[in-house]
Amino acid sequence: MTRLHIDWTACDGRGLCAELLPELLAEDDWGFPIARDGSPSPAVPGPLEPAAQRAVDRCPALALRLLRDTR
Ligand code: SF4
């Protein structure tokens, strides 16, 4: 399973990732991403992996990472 890890210490809350990945992320009142499933590292369904990778690549603060659980 792939998860999207958000580094809250690095995120500067411009909300780009929520725009690129609305299926997984919403924006709070300050522009910080919140996972729709309430998880700190939301699971990324296979069909959303390309969009999640784009969000990782475009995060201006390098605050996003995809974690792949190989078990
Ligand atoms: S794109 Fe990066 S810096 Fe911007 S809100 Fe998302 S995680 Fe934070």
Question: Number of DSSP strands?
Answer: 5
Sketch the topology as an H/E string, one letter per element: EHEEEHE
Category from helices, strands and their pairing:
alpha+beta
CATH architecture: 2-Layer Sandwich
Low-pLDDT stretches: none
The profile of the biggest β sheet is: 3 strands, antiparallel
How much strand?
A: 25-35%
CATH class: Alpha Beta
The average pLDDT value, as a whole number, equals: 95
Order of strands across the biggest sheet?
4-1-5
The geometry reads as globular
Whole-number total of structural domains? 1
Bound molecule types: iron/sulfur cluster
H/I helix tally: 2
| Overall radius of gyration | 11 Å
Characterise the protein shown here:
With 71 residues, the chain is of the alpha+beta class. The protein has one domain (2-68): Alpha-Beta Plaits, CATH 3.30.70.20. Helix content is 21%, strand content 25%. It contains two helices and five strands, in the order E-H-E-E-E-H-E. It has helices spanning 16-20, 49-58; strands at residues 2-6, 25-27, 33-35, 43-44, 64-68. The strands form two sheets. A three-stranded antiparallel sheet has the order 4-1-5, with helices on one face. A two-stranded antiparallel ribbon has the order 2-3. Strand 2 and strand 3 form a beta hairpin. The longest helix is centred in the last third of the chain and has 10 residues, at 49-58. The radius of gyration is 11 Å and the shape is globular. The mean pLDDT is 95. Iron/sulfur cluster is lined by residues 6, 11-17, 33, 59-61, 63-64. This is Ferredoxin.
